[in-house]
Design a protein that fits this description.
Strand content: 5-15%
CATH superfamily of the largest domain: ABC transporter type 1, transmembrane domain
CATH class of the largest domain: Mainly Alpha
Number of helices: 25
Distance between the termini: 103 Å
Strand order of the largest sheet: 6-7-8-3-9-10
Number of domains: 3
Radius of gyration: 35 Å
């Protein structure tokens, strides 16, 4: 009968046993190891507190069996002092234990969060185009805190329970071995429910973390300036409130489920404890009536039962409880273990004395080549069941109408040349500008700067030699000065002002009440589009790169801002190798080289000479560039001035 019961317990446990491997424990120990001496102190307090907790029941026994029957007032007074002193000493040691636990836990949080953040910073752009920011925030916050709780909470509780059970059982056997065996004999009554509940709680814990991540993601998307603006412009406030209500209800539902599972668990523990206690007092009472031992012994024994059943129950499920709490560590390590798509090779070299020669040699690239950047397998991407219009959302980004974003592109740029990149929308122009600073690596082919393959160059030196201004200017929620110093932290006021003057933004900044200390707001939304772009140009000037990559998007700006930016661009590009996605005829006419893209291929190349400009060369060919000139560039705002 008992064998069948135990076999069923083992079968049920093995159905979905949490995976708690030594590999995982060793990885956790790597983060805990710097605090091993504090951990040793923490363990010492556990042993001391457990030992002191054994004393009060013995004081009760002595009070009932000796002090009161014998009328020993002195003994009674000392026992009273002991009943006050022991809890007081325990409380003081408990405060020290709490200090050590908090120190270890908070330090561990910082180390783990730093490791996670550092790894995310090293991930390629592909990872961030697929991942949801709110989910990343959840990994950095909820999961890291959960991991800290696993080490300094669950682990300490398990160890305390082990020490408590061992010491209590030793004392109980010394007091009365028969009642001790009776107390332990009821343990199988709640081993099975405990294990089943432990498995369910692990599943609930993982679901809770996922749901919290989705709620954080929604908040991140709709509470930043861009998201809030979009919601208001389309009048979707009520829809987003309903979506958030659904998310928060899901989080509340899983919280209630977890609470109720825990409540049923403690109800079972309480019932079994009551059965065990009643059996002990019933059998013990008969033994007292038979004169086998004293009343004080059974009173002390009853007190020890309270210290036994809770820890004994927890110990029966200790490995599942610990594995459940380690879910947070697993989720953190899932991100840390994501392979780095773009990183420095062991033999990578620094770019020094950059001249600015750029060569694309049979370069092809596909956004699908790198999968989803590792984000999809972690639940960090858009959930297909979570679209705003009920239509499944694909987990792949960016969406392209062809398999290759660019294919077999080859060209050569001499140092200091201005290269205009033109072509219809979706031709692959932006993709090419992403490959040059190595935001992505080519699927095939080679990109070289001054003869160095980009994959053999250290990323930091590549970033230092290159400046990029994208169509969507991003500014931090900080002062103008702080945003400018992001390009060169050591720049002085004179350098900052010179850069701003070159970008035609210094005069505007001087008119602000707080000047360079003006806070630009979330994503720079306190500034106009033209002001943000000129600040971005000033930031690049302050960096002083040898190679510029620009998306010359000025079509949405007013004529005054456009003129100021165009004038600034002309100054910035002088003496530098510049690759510009050109939207203005004046830039194209000034270009030394014009590259014409279509459907991911480089279909035309125009190289200027002393007698003819690149524009004239391509125009004479009567190809795609000539068509674009007739339909787009010829009637751009600056065409009259430049073509006359």
């Amino acid at each position: 009968m008992y064998g069948g019961w135990w076999n069923y317990i083992r079968y049920d446990e093995g159905r979905d046993r949490p995976q708690l491997s030594w590999v995982l424990l060793k990885r956790v120990w790597v983060y805990a190891q710097p605090y091993q001496f504090k951990l040793l102190g923490l363990l010492t307090t556990i042993f001391i507190i457990s030992g002191l907790s054994l004393i009060p029941p013995l004081l009760y026994r002595d009070l009932i069996d000796n002090a009161l029957p014998n009328g020993n007032v002195t003994r009674l007074n000392w026992l009273a002092v002991g009943m006050i002193g022991i809890p007081l000493i325990n409380a003081l040691i408990g405060m020290w234990q709490r200090y050590l636990s908090a120190t270890i836990g908070e330090s561990l949080i910082a180390d783990l969060r730093n490791s996670l953040y550092n790894h995310m910073q090293r991930m390629s752009l592909r990872f961030f185009t697929h991942a949801k920011t709110g989910q990343l925030m959840s990994r950095l916050n909820n999961d890291v805190v959960g991991a800290q709780s696993a080490l300094t909470g669950t682990f300490i509780n398990i160890l305390s329970n082990i020490v408590t059970v061992v010491t209590v059982l030793v004392v109980m056997f010394m007091l009365e071995w028969r009642l001790t065996l009776l107390s332990v004999s009821i343990l199988p009554l709640f081993i099975l429910p405990t294990r089943r509940i432990g498995r369910v709680l692990r599943e609930v814990r993982r679901e809770s973390l996922d749901l919290n991540g989705k709620m954080n993601s929604l908040m991140n998307e709709t509470l930043n300036v861009s998201g809030a603006l979009l919601v208001k412009l389309f009048g979707r406030q009520q829809d987003e409130m309903n979506r958030f209500k659904d998310r928060s209800r899901d989080v509340a539902r899983i919280g209630i489920k977890s609470a109720m599972i825990g409540r049923w668990f403690f109800l079972g523990i309480g019932l079994v404890s009551a059965i065990g206690t009643s059996l002990v007092f019933w059998v013990g009472g008969h033994l007292v009536l038979q004169g086998a031992f004293t009343v004080g012994t059974i009173v002390a024994f009853g007190a020890y039962l309270n210290q036994l059943y809770g820890p004994l129950t927890a110990m029966s499920n200790a490995h599942i409880e610990f594995a459940t709490s380690m879910v947070s560590f697993e989720r953190v390590f899932e991100v840390i273990d994501l392979p780095l798509e773009i990183e420095d090779k062991a033999d990578a070299v620094d770019l020094e004395d950059v001249k600015g020669e750029v060569v694309f040699d049979q370069v092809s690239f596909s956004y699908a080549a790198g999968g989803d950047g590792g984000a999809g397998g972690l639940g960090l991407t858009v959930d297909p069941k979570d679209s705003r219009n009920g239509t499944p959302v694909p987990l792949t980004a960016p969406v392209a109408s062809r398999s290759m974003a660019i294919e077999q592109v080859s060209f050569h740029i001499e140092p200091g040349q201005l290269v205009a990149l033109v072509g219809p929308s979706g031709a692959g122009k932006t993709t090419m500008t992403y490959l040059l600073p190595r935001l992505y690596d080519p699927t095939a082919g080679q990109i070289c700067i001054d003869g160095h393959d980009l994959r053999q160059v250290k990323l930091r030196s590549l970033a230092q030699s290159m400046g990029m201004v994208t169509q969507e200017t991003y500014l931090f929620h900080d002062t103008i000065r702080a945003n400018l110093l992001y390009a060169n932290a050591n720049a002085g006021q004179a350098e900052i002002e010179a850069a701003c003057q070159a970008a035609n933004i210094h005069h505007f900044i001087e008119t602000l009440p707080e000047g360079y200390e003006t806070v630009v707001g979330e994503r720079g939304y306190r500034l106009s589009g033209g002001e943000k772009q000129r600040l971005a140009l000033a930031r690049v000037i302050l960096k002083d790169p040898r190679i510029l990559v620009l998306d010359e998007a000025t079509s949405s700006l007013d004529s005054q801002s456009e003129a100021l930016i165009q004038e600034a661009l002309e100054r910035i590009m002088q003496g530098r190798t510049s690759l510009v996605i050109a939207h203005r005829l004046s830039t194209i006419l000034a270009a030394d080289v014009i590259l014409v893209m279509n459907q991911g291929r480089l279909v035309e190349q125009g190289y200027g000479s002393e007698t003819r400009s690149a524009h004239e060369v391509l125009l004479a060919q009567g190809g795609l560039y000539a068509d674009l000139y007739q339909t787009q560039f010829r009637y751009s705002p600056d065409s009259v001035a430049t073509s006359s």
